[in-house]
What does this fold into?
Amino acid sequence: MPGKYTLELTAGGKTLRQALMVELDPRVHVSQEELVQQRDLALAIVRGMKSSYDAFEKVRTLHRAVTKEKKPQAGQAKSQHEEMDRLEKKFESLEKGTKQAPGFGPINRDLGRLISSIESADIAPTQTVRSAVQQLCDDLDKDMQEFHNLNLQDVPALDTKQDAAKATPPKSGCGE
It folds into this structure.
């Protein structure tokens, strides 16, 4: 962002400071407010990408643990096999998504595409891009709630259940 900054370098117990002035490229005709809007939306996307990546890894880890520990054996009741199939579908929908809702992986991918388009030009983000980001952030929050519920209700007997899931479901921080 254009403005006055102070650079600091600390080494060997000494701190050096230098003033720095960043000026807008004279070929760019955009207001400071539009640059702030661009930066703020990009930062929201970065938060969403981090949240979706972290959630994907947690779901994948729990999915593997459930599959390993709760795999139905031959001769077990049909209901146990059906329950495992139901859990498997829930895990897959959180990881990969469904036709109705994207999972953590697709959300992360789509946010990555949007940040690329935002950072490729010095303009305020369009309403279409803002709406797309907000929709993905809303989907991310829904998936995080679904994972929270899955971890608390559907996988309660496992020792691998994460303690963090006992608390209020986390928010992505994406749409803020």
